[in-house]
Amino acid sequence: MTSPYPPRRRSGSDYSRTPGRVPPSPGYASSELSTSTISERQNPVVAAARSFTGMFAACFAPPESDNSRSLGDSEEFKSSSTASNGSRAGSRAGSQRGRNSNGGMNISSYNIVQRKEPGIVKFTMEEIFQVTRNFSPSFKIGQGGFGAVYKAKLLDGTVVAVKRAKKSLYEKHLGVEFQSEIQTLSKVEHLNLVKLYGYLDQGDERIIVVEYVPNGTLREHLDCIHGSVLDLAARLDVAIDVAHAITYLHMYIDHPIIHRDIKSSNILLTENFRAKVADFGFARQAADSDSGMTHVSTQVKGTAGYLDPEYLKTYQLTEKSDVYSFGVLLVELVTGRRPIEPKFELKERITAKWAMKRFMEDDAISVLDPRLDQTAANTLALHKILELALQCLAPRRQNRPSMKRCAEILWSIRKDFREQLSASNFRSFSTSSQRSSSLRE
Ligand SMILES: Nc1ncnc2c1ncn2[C@@H]1O[C@H](COP(=O)(O)OP(=O)(O)OP(=O)(O)O)[C@@H](O)[C@H]1O
């Protein structure tokens, strides 16, 4: 099949290997972990660091309440939300620093709170207060490990999410990490990545202003908290969007990035159910393969249930750690379960381990999300997705496919899925027309 990607920028053999079938990991890494992050368990300072570098990441944070979302979705935002979603380039007014003589805000100073492209806006506290109406609780749309999230509208109509770090987590030395995260984010731009608009790093305030993505997180949709079931076609599209985003990070930027916190609560959905990967708090520049490096050695960060066992053991980080997390995400997509389900009996507690075991025993259908129909198309796709997940979850990183390969495999799964769907539709159409013609006779 033709690759959807341009030629890669980097050299190195890591990506070219064709994946082979491998037995599931005996440990699945996270089975003994609580739902806290590894870094938090290891070191309380790192726990604080996580909250800065892991801007959006808290493990298994309960979904935000309907209450907070409906408040954030107040009338004020409705028209502009659509505008911003529909045309990202719709309003590109420049940033003007308007201020009255005594340094306060005046009417025209609203102009300062505009998005400036290209480049990242360095916001002032006054600007942030202005767009969030002094962090009004009615603008609050969520709460994560990093802090509170507010929905706000810039003067040019751009609707943004304003993420304010918890003050209790502030430590001076973390300013460096915050800045390096901003630097990382400012270098990436992809349809399937949440875009950074600006930030504030002043005194004890750390604030990040990013693209607002209106349709909740993937986890919320798998939990059906928005009222409807995400069908398998939509789940496949999400998997492909995420694979594209990570492939871009791994292969198509000058200094490849490892995301390190791929999980369903970090995947936001648009109104059209396009997925956007958020939260670069743990992102790390990958080893430079051109200079012969195969990995970076670093403290383990990430979320329990999604962590690569080899990285956990060796502290060696490579792009394949994201591939492992992506494997966990694939299992989550087809089962609907969270990676760790503490309330289930022991053998079902680690979802990936349970699902892979069932798959190896030729009983894949028993892990299909009960909210999905057991149609021929769903069953076929389920098998193929689990097969790919098995490869991604290989205990040794060299046996895992590259993200680019994952995307290609998913493309072919989606193609077969669609063909199967239209074949079934055709079959049921011919059966029903045969039935009605025999009734007429
Ligand atoms: N860019 C965004 N657009 C729209 N809503 C967002 C955006 N970012 C965050 N949110 C909302 O705010 C909530 C909290 O986000 P945040 O990223 O801080 O935490 P989280 O991902 O839920 O948990 P954690 O950061 O601890 O992993 C999210 O669940 C989501 O509903």
UniProtKB/TrEMBL annotation:
<dbReference type="Pfam" id="PF00069">
    <property type="entry name" value="Pkinase"/>
</dbReference>
<keyword id="KW-0808">Transferase</keyword>
<dbReference type="InterPro" id="IPR017441">
    <property type="entry name" value="Protein_kinase_ATP_BS"/>
</dbReference>
<dbReference type="InterPro" id="IPR008271">
    <property type="entry name" value="Ser/Thr_kinase_AS"/>
</dbReference>
<keyword id="KW-0547">Nucleotide-binding</keyword>
<keyword id="KW-0067">ATP-binding</keyword>
<feature type="compositionally biased region" description="Low complexity">
    <location>
        <begin position="79"/>
        <end position="104"/>
    </location>
</feature>
<keyword id="KW-0723">Serine/threonine-protein kinase</keyword>
<feature type="binding site">
    <location>
        <position position="167"/>
    </location>
    <ligand>
        <name>ATP</name>
    </ligand>
</feature>
<dbReference type="InterPro" id="IPR011009">
    <property type="entry name" value="Kinase-like_dom_sf"/>
</dbReference>
<feature type="domain" description="Protein kinase">
    <location>
        <begin position="135"/>
        <end position="412"/>
    </location>
</feature>
<feature type="compositionally biased region" description="Polar residues">
    <location>
        <begin position="31"/>
        <end position="40"/>
    </location>
</feature>
<feature type="region of interest" description="Disordered">
    <location>
        <begin position="1"/>
        <end position="40"/>
    </location>
</feature>
<protein>
    <recommendedName>
        <fullName>non-specific serine/threonine protein kinase</fullName>
        <ecNumber>2.7.11.1</ecNumber>
    </recommendedName>
</protein>
<dbReference type="GO" id="GO:0004674">
    <property type="term" value="F:protein serine/threonine kinase activity"/>
</dbReference>
<keyword id="KW-0418">Kinase</keyword>
<comment type="similarity">
    <text>Belongs to the protein kinase superfamily.</text>
</comment>
<feature type="region of interest" description="Disordered">
    <location>
        <begin position="64"/>
        <end position="109"/>
    </location>
</feature>
<dbReference type="GO" id="GO:0005524">
    <property type="term" value="F:ATP binding"/>
</dbReference>
<dbReference type="InterPro" id="IPR000719">
    <property type="entry name" value="Prot_kinase_dom"/>
</dbReference>
